[in-house]
Backbone:
């Protein structure tokens, strides 16, 4: 696909001067200073620049790289600005940037007139903004929209890329969509940056008979590798787009809402550019679209609960109707266990899928078939779905923009988290599609595949493993588990240790941090709107202070003293009684923590689960 000349394509301003005055902020594009705007620091009102807007001496002048929008809290408006960026590569010849730092600037003075409760609430809301400032995996471009996949881009009407960037974008994948309202209303099209949450990975190789050399340049989620196989330079890119309609954290956003939007819904696109051709393969992942939950309670693996609701059949129907409208034929691959709580959830899912004859449902117990070491056993799954997967195909255009193939459907994969097992499976399907694509244009013959070339295969698997890490960081707060299965096709000792550390980190974050993070995501996505002149809308943290620190101290102390007294118990009966007493105290503390686990964890305060 040819890239349109810059003269015919809408382009955002890419660098700004931020002038801070006592009464206002002024934002001016460095290339066009007369086109800026001001934001009143007292009431948040936005106005285009006039002759007097920049008069006087600013208290501070700094450079920013974009305006993410505005959000209104109790005290007034906050302006989001991008203060640091990093260029991570090119998409179809146009530069892509990652947000490395951003900041919410207060534009209000109403807080000094607020009640004590409003001040308390505003302090909490500011804590949420601080959490949002460190959001991982945010990308943007000044020259092209990142939210549309290649097939949709190529099928849009001519001239679509001359529209303002926010009009080109798919709102479901725009992380800051809820913040853009004021900028859109003021018609500041040149300043409105749609920000994508996901990840973008690049892999460059030269196909040349036998792999003879390679070089890797890596910077966080950006990777370039130059390899040689058969004199055919190629670029493989993986772009993942996170849907914002049920944005959330691992334990506090499970299943679907009543509209059919699934948690952790991510569209992943594998793009291959080679010999003038461009291939695109789409896959999607998302939580099982039933109404279910898994509330943290300090146990390592909280029980799953399926919420019986009369709307459940309609929720599933709405979810898959939306997918069919966007992607065509859908094949749902369920990777959950077939026993225990997961088995009950999988069975409920299968029961609902029987009511959708146009969607094929495939149950594959990943843990039973593949275990923790046998990545190649996914071939068993491919035997079941391979024919239909190949019929769904991929998207292909030639150097003259002629559409040669269209992808007719997608695989929708899920496990419980839609992270670890799902990413292993998606990387396997991406590898199968890449083999078909290289054979389609004669780069490889029918007996060759990407795994034939060891170095290339290693780099291809690495970007899929890093893709899994990025998606996992955004949802669970840690790197993905089972990354070794993607990188090496088997579990290694180093990988097992890394998985153990990630599992412990997930436990801590899920139980003691994610309640606040969930509130921050509900705020940024617009699911929760701050109201003014009304009673506090925040759900109370609790009527009594948390006794977890005291309970933890008693537990550790009880175990320590019990161990010591048992060691000394042989001396007299009194020591036996002391040992029994402290053992009883320890058992009581354990029972108390277990019984009150849900009350000791970090819980969201803004929105209900569904």
Residues:
């Amino acid at each position: 696909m040819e890239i349109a000349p810059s003269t015919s394509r809408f382009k955002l301003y890419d660098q700004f001067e931020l002038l801070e005055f006592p009464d206002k902020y002024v934002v001016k594009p460095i290339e066009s200073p007369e086109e800026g705007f001001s934001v009143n620091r007292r009431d948040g009102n936005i106005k285009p620049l006039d002759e007097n807007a920049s008069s006087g001496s600013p208290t501070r002048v700094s450079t920013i790289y974009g305006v993410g929008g505005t959000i209104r809290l109790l005290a007034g408006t906050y302006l989001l600005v991008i203060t640091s960026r990093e260029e991570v590569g090119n998409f179809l010849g146009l530069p892509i940037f990652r947000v490395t730092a951003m900041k919410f600037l207060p534009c209000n003075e109403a807080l000094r007139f607020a009640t004590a409760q409003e001040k308390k609430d505003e302090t909490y809301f500011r804590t949420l903004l601080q959490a949002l400032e460190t959001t991982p995996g945010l990308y943007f471009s000044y020259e092209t929209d990142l939210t549309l996949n290649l097939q949709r881009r190529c099928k849009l009407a001519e001239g679509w890329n001359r529209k303002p960037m926010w009009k080109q974008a798919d709102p479901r994948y725009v992380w800051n969509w809820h913040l853009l309202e004021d900028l859109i209303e003021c018609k500041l099209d040149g300043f409105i940056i749609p920000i994508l949450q996901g990840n973008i990975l690049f892999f460059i190789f030269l196909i040349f008979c036998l792999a003879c050399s390679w070089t890797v340049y890596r910077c966080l989620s950006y990777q370039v590798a130059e390899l040689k196989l058969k004199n055919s330079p190629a670029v493989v890119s993986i772009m993942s787009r996170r849907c914002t309609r049920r944005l959330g954290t691992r334990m506090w956003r499970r299943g679907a809402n009543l509209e059919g939007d699934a948690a952790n819904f991510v569209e992943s696109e594998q793009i291959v550019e080679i010999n003038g051709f461009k291939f695109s393969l789409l896959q999607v992942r998302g939580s099982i679209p039933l109404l279910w939950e898994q509330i943290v309670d300090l146990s390592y693996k909280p029980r799953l609960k399926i919420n019986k609701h009369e709307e459940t059949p309609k929720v599933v129907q709405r979810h898959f109707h939306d997918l069919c409208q966007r992607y065509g034929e859908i094949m749902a691959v369920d990777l959950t266990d077939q026993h225990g709580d997961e088995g009950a959830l999988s069975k409920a899912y299968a029961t609902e899928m029987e009511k959708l004859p146009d969607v094929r449902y495939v149950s594959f117990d990943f843990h039973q078939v593949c275990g923790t070491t046998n990545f190649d056993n996914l071939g068993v799954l491919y035997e079941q779905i391979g024919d239909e997967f190949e019929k769904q195909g991929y998207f292909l255009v030639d150097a003259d923009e002629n559409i040669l193939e269209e992808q007719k459907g997608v695989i929708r994969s899920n496990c419980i988290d839609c992270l670890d097992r799902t990413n292993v499976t998606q990387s396997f399907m991406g590898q199968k599609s890449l083999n078909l694509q290289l054979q389609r244009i004669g780069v490889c013959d029918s007996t060759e595949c990407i795994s034939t070339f060891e170095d290339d295969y290693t780099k291809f698997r690495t970007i899929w493993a890093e893709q899994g890490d990025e998606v996992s960081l955004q949802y669970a707060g840690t790197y993905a588990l089972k990354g070794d299965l993607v990188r090496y096709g088997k579990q290694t000792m180093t990988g097992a240790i890394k998985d153990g550390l990630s599992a412990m980190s997930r436990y801590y974050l899920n139980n003691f941090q994610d309640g606040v993070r969930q509130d921050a995501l509900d705020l940024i996505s617009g699911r929760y709107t701050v109201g003014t002149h009304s009673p506090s809308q925040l759900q109370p943290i609790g009527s009594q202070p948390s006794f977890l620190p005291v309970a933890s101290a008693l537990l550790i102390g009880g175990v320590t003293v019990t161990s010591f007294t048992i060691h000394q118990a042989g001396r007299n009966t009194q020591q036996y009684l002391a040992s029994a007493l402290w053992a009883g105290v320890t058992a009581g503390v354990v029972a108390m923590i277990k019984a009150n686990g849900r009350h000791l964890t970090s819980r969201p305060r803004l929105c209900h689960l569904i």
Remarks:
- The chain has 15 helices and 21 strands.
